[in-house]
Amino acid sequence: MAAEKYASDDIAADPDRPAKVCAEAGRKCVRSLRQYPILSREWFGVVDSLGQLARLVQLEGRMPANSKVAESAGRNLDSDGTLWDQEAHENAIRILVEEAKVNLCLRMINEFKRWHYDPALRTADVQQAMREFELSEGAVMQKCKAFEESLGLLLWRSFIHVETLQLMDIPLLIEHCAMVLNYCENTQKSNIEGGAKEQEFTVMYYVSALFNHAEALNNSELLAKCREFKILPLSVSHILAHVKEYPGDITFDVACGLAALCDNEDFQTEWQDFLDAAERADFLQLQQVLVEPLLVENPDRKKDLRPLTDFFNVVRRKLAECGRAARTKTQAALAIGGFWTNHRACARTCARRPIHAVVARIALRDRGRAESNAAASC
Question: How far apart are CA 204 and CA 223, in angstroms?
């Protein structure tokens, strides 16, 4: 009872003390992060640190906003602020950025997923860890799950902030997204086996963050890399196949990311390089599968998705133009084929008949065609 009294007195004297305690614990965990071989003794220690950081992020998410921040001089009142002057408590994420550990986290999750997607290597390493540390297979796989989910949460919450992405290895992030999306496309098209916190779902948060902040980054390089790795068509395919499995708020985040991409001036001038004809048809399906259900539930968010809904019309018009052009090309090919058929027939006739008869026949045919064309034009 006495301890509780003194603790409550400390909090009353310093209301920011819980946040400070979290920050101190978070910095200690962040500084212990290193990249070790997967399933090594040191790696298991990193899993525990990541789990503690993930819990701190979740705890800070439940803290009330710091209203004093709004009174700070020089703060941009038109935005939610940066990691250093926002009302929300995100000390764990801020420390990750300050200690330059976000790129490390990306390299760790990328290495882990490459390992995870190699069944033979994964099985051998799990068996070795079971023997070396006297653990059951379930215990080892639980550590792997905790490692992936903790890193996934930390990266997702970090990428919300453009100042984090400005320090990131963007090419590696795009390659990681492409690897995971390709895996889903090739092996889990009908149903994703992992949980909602694993990379096969969380990667869509990363893609959305890239699209949202592209213009604040190296826009042309980012778009070129996304085009090279087909991030947009892979994302469209992922949405069409798995949108009903998406957890919670990921659906709206994905739609907002696509809307930001469609509002990107560089993308608007070269979007046809991102999607072929079949992929454009798939993209149009998002209106019915993704956007319309969202607007039924949240009609007040129509403004946020307006660039995306407008872009559907652009793609639809382009498909219609391509269809008309294809029909015109087909008709021209048929007309040319008919011309050469007639030409060959006339050549054969010339070989069999006197020249004056052939000339008369051709003149009569041309006169008939001219009369027919005149009647058609009327």
Answer: 17
